[in-house]
Write a structure and sequence with these properties.
Blueprint (H helix, E strand, L loop, with lengths): L3 E4 L5 E5 L2 H12 L4 H4 L19 H10 L3 H8 L4 H8 L3 H7 L8 H11 L3 H5 L3
Antiparallel strand pairs: 1-2
Helix pairs in contact: 3-4, 5-6
């Protein structure tokens, strides 16, 4: 089952995104135990769409992010079996620059994102999302 964890800036889980069919089944099971007044506690939250709605990230990458507690960029590098030094050499930058790029608050420039995406075999959006 594809579960996505949304964490705060300290890495603490705040929300879980689950497939709708799983949510629906859970609600059906819960409805058996709820009274009408308890069911009224649910509220609809409006959907805010953006350019990243259709961007998918492979489960293997999300697993690295969760298991290693690293950024998406670092997860792609780890998944591809590269060291920061190897990435630095391929990009023509220093290892410390790669380390900075992999920090959670990093917002690499477009050209850098293009190079990273080409190196990792993914799209720019797949390394620049915040999860």
């Amino acid at each position: 089952m594809g579960i996505q964890y949304i964490k705060d800036e300290k890495g603490n889980p705040q929300y879980v995104v689950i497939p709708y069919d799983v949510f629906f089944q859970m609600r059906l099971q819960m409805a058996e135990f709820e009274t009408a007044s308890e069911a009224e506690g649910w509220e609809d939250i409006p959907c805010e769409q953006d350019e990243y709605d259709d961007v998918g990230i492979p489960d293997e990458i999300i697993a690295v992010v969760c298991d290693e507690k690293v950024s998406l960029q670092a997860a792609w590098r780890i998944y591809k079996g590269l060291s920061q030094q190897e990435v630095a050499e391929k990009l023509g930058i220093s290892q410390s620059a790669v380390s900075q790029l992999e920090s959670p608050d990093s917002r690499p420039q477009k050209r850098t994102r293009e190079k990273l995406a080409a190196l990792y075999g993914c799209t720019q959006e797949q390394i620049s999302l915040r999860i």
